[in-house]
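Deliverable D4.2, example record:
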Amino acid sequence: MRILVVAVHPDDETLGAGGTILKHIAEGHEVSLMLVTKSDTSAGFSEAQVRQSLQQKDEMIEAYGFKNVYELGILNTQLHLVDYNLLIEKISAVIKHLMPEVIYTVNRSDAHTDHQITAKAMFSCTKAFRNPFIKRILMYECISETESAPQLGESLFIPNVFSDITDYLDKKLEIMEIYKSELQDYPMPRSIENIKALAMHRGAACNKKYAEAFMLVREIY
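Output generated by the structure prediction step:
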């Protein structure tokens, strides 16, 4: 099975689907990663921050062992300034090349504008009549972004697919430790304690010790 995981920023993939990624790889599936943005001094980041971001990204990629990694190279926090057609072209090129059967992407209503724009673009790029090879599209929740968005009826993250990550949680947390610049101290949301607590909460919903939750966008079988 060919799987594409979409991360707007490095760490999204681990926060939202790290355990599921590890499980897919352990099951022999071909898992590829698409990174939408990068840090750069031209976007206001210091040289030290850019170096740290690059190092963390490289360590994360090595830790998972992705089949392919696609980097779109758009500046972090600058997606709203990018020609939308260019974003569509970049994403579509990856999808046409990889022809994934399953896609994991960010939630459409996350608080971060970069996430909202990427999710919208993903819907434009995954229309069934243009990409019949895509059989399943799921949105993942990204702690500190998904729950921070206004909890309005039209934009709620409604978990309806659950992945048992009991055997993979420790490795997920280990990979999350790579992101030293992104981790927060408890009780901040992006803390190891709260990442584990969310996995426990989602596990309780499906009678598993630990789980990740997704919102199904489309499934064809």
